[in-house]
Amino acid sequence: MFAVVLQVHQVLIYGSYDHTVRLWDLRNSKTVLQFKHGKPLEDVLFFPSGGLLATAGGNIVKIWDILGGGRPIHTMESHQKTVMSMCISKVPKSRQALGDAPSRLVTASLDGYMKVFDLDHFKVTHSAKYPAPILSMGISSLCRTMAIGTSSGLLFIRQRKGQIEDNIPLDSPGLQVNQVEDSLSGKDGPVVKSNQYRYFLRGRSEKPSGGDYYVKGMAKVYFRDYDKELRHFQHSKALVSALKAADSKGTIAVIEELVARKRLMQSLSILNLDELELLISFLSKFILVPKYSRFLIALTDRVLDARAVDLEKSENIKKQIADLKGVVIQELRVQQSMQELQGIIEPLIRASAR
Fold first, then answer.
1. HEC string of the chain?
2. Cα(70)–Cα(73) distance, integer angstroms
3. Do the beta carbons of residue 112 and residue 133 sit within 8 Å?
4. Which of 131, 200, 226, 279 could form a disulfide with 242 if both were Cys (CB 3.0 to 4.6 A apart)?
5. What is the predicted pLDDT for the residue at 116?
6. Quick check: 313 and 273 in contact, CB under 8 A?
7. How many domains would you assign to the chain?
8. Could you tell me the residue range of the domain that residue 71 belongs to?
9. pLDDT score recorded for residue 183
10. What is the pLDDT of residue 148?
11. Averages of pLDDT over each 10 residues, the chain, 354 residues
12. Are 36 and 154 in a shared domain?
C-alpha cells in the first residue's frame, strides 16, 4: 500500500492507494477524521490557512473543508491523466511583500501539463506544457524557483523574473547572496526582450567561475574545395581540386566517393592533358604505398585503358608513364628478391627447429 504523509503541527495526514485519507492526532495517536477521495492518492496538501486540504488522485483534485468535518467543497478535473504533485505558491506583484501576495495552487500531471489555480474560484490562471510526463514538482520557500522532474530524466528549472522584495531578511532560507548583491547594486537593469538585438548577445562577456562546468561550443567546420564541389555534384572538378591539394588521404577519399557514385570513369574521360599529368604523377608517387597499392593499381589499369590515345599526345605524360613503369619494375624485382630470400631462409628455420 502506497502512502502520502504530511505533518502539520500536531496533525498527520495519511493518504494511500486504497482511496482513503486519514487525519491522525499525534497527541493521542488516534484517527480524528477519515474520508474517501475515490481514486488512488498521489499527493495531499494543506492550504496556508490550515482549514482546507487538497488531495490528488487520478486526474481529479479535490478540496476538503477540514474544519467542517471533511466536507468536499470543490472538485477539479482539468488534467487528462493522473495528477502526481501539488504545491502552494505565492504570486507577489512589483515591490509586494511575499506574505501579502495571493496564493495559488499548482498541479503537475502525467499529461505533461503544469497548471495554476486561484484559490478563490479554483479556475485555471496559467498552464505550461512539458515534453514528457511530469513525475514530481517543487517550489522554493521564496516562491522564486520551481523544479519539475519528468519521466524522460530531464529536470526543468523555472525562475521568476523581478527584483527581490526589500522587506525580506538577508538570512531567509533559499535566498542566494548573489541575488541580494545584484538587487542592491542594480545590476539587473531593464529586462531585455526577445525582439531586441541585445537579447541574442546575452552571456557573451561572462567568464566561467571555478565551480562552473564549461561546455565548449562546436568548432566551425571548414570544407575543402573538393568537398564543396562534391556537394554540388561537380565530380571532375572535385577530382582535380583533390590532386592539386597534394593531400593523399583527401585524394583517395574523393576517388573512392566517385567510385561509390559510379562517376569515376566519366570524370577520368573529361580530364585535359594537364589534369591527366597531375593524376599520373599522383599514381607514380603513391602506387607503392602498402595501404593504397591495391586500390591504385586497379585505378592505374583503368586510366591507361581509358586514355591510351591521349597518353601519346604529350611528351610529359610519356615520361611520367616511363617513370611509373620503372617504379613498378623496381618493386617487382624487390618482391622477387624477397621471395628468393624467403625460399633460402625457410629450410634453415625448419632444420633448426628439429
1. CCEEEEEECCEEEEEECCCEEEEEECCCCEEEEEEECCCCEEEEEECCCCCEEEEEECCEEEEEECCCCCEEEEEECCCCCCEEEEEEEECCCCCCCHHHCCEEEEEEECCCEEEEEECCCCCEEEEEECCCCEEEEEECCCCCEEEEEECCCCEEEEECCCCCCCCCCCCCCCCCHHHHHHHHHCCCCCCCCCCCHHHHHCCCCCCCCCCCCCCCCCCCCCCCHHHHHHHCCCHHHHHHHHHHCCCHHHHHHHHHHHHHHCCHHHHHHCCCHHHHHHHHHHHHHHCCCHHHHHHHHHHHHHHHHHCHHHHCCCHHHHHHHHHHHHHHHHHHHHHHHHHHHHHHHHHHHHHHHC
2. 9
3. yes
4. 226
5. 92
6. yes
7. 2
8. 3-161
9. 39
10. 93
11. 54 86 84 88 86 90 87 91 90 70 90 90 89 91 88 87 47 40 46 76 75 76 87 90 87 90 88 86 85 85 83 81 83 84 86 80
12. yes
Per-residue confidence (pLDDT) for residue 178, from 0 to 100: 41
pLDDT at 330: 83
Question: CATH code at 101?
Answer: 2.130.10.10
State the cell numbers at 162.
Answer: 523581478
End residue of a domain, out of 161, 186, 217: 161
- What's the pLDDT score for residue 166? 43
Edge to edge, what strands does the sheet with 41-46 contain?
Answer: 41-46, 52-57, 60-65, 71-76
